[in-house]
Design brief:
Blueprint lengths: L19 H11 L10 H12 L6 H8 L4 H10 L11 E6 L2 H5 L2 H12 L5 E2 L5 E6 L11 E3 L2 E3 L4 H12 L5
Parallel strand pairs: 1-3
Antiparallel strand pairs: 1-4, 2-3, 4-5
Bound molecules: FE2/S2 (inorganic) cluster.
Amino acid sequence: MVLSFNRSSRWSPPDAAHGGEEVASQVRVLLEGIKPERPFLLPALHRIQEELGYVPKEAVPVLASYFNTTPAAIFGVISFYSEIRTEPPPKVEIEWCSGPACLLKGGGKVRTALEAVLGSPMNSALPDGSIGLRLVQCDGTCHLAPLVRIGGRYIGPLGVAEAIELARRLKEGKPP
Ligand code: FES
């Protein structure tokens, strides 16, 4: 099966002239010790993301070959799991909790404020990669709802005014 890529896709063909083969080699090394069986695909993706910060496009054909499947099947798994990144992470990432307690306490308004001030929708980053917004699940720290996490630090309970202030500070390059 031939998998085609286009410009509107999140994926583009591996570019050997720009380090594509080097990245593919890194991925091959990271796969060492992982059984080439489908149940181990997810652990493989997590290992790649842990080491490289994301799962680069160059990993797709390598994974397909290793797990004896098609690039389309690999892409399907990557697309299904929102925690798998397909782009390098931004320098500063605001993790917005989408859990029920945060939503009940106004998390939706916090999200709208962050997106408006940053000028960036959820699960994307500014074009320069400086700041990104990412939707995450509840991790049990609901006493701080509604909250965001930045670099492992919890910020909450957040009101709309605080969310606006936070986004402005980050845009100015200041710490949260
Ligand atoms: S719902 Fe947001 S931390 Fe639990």
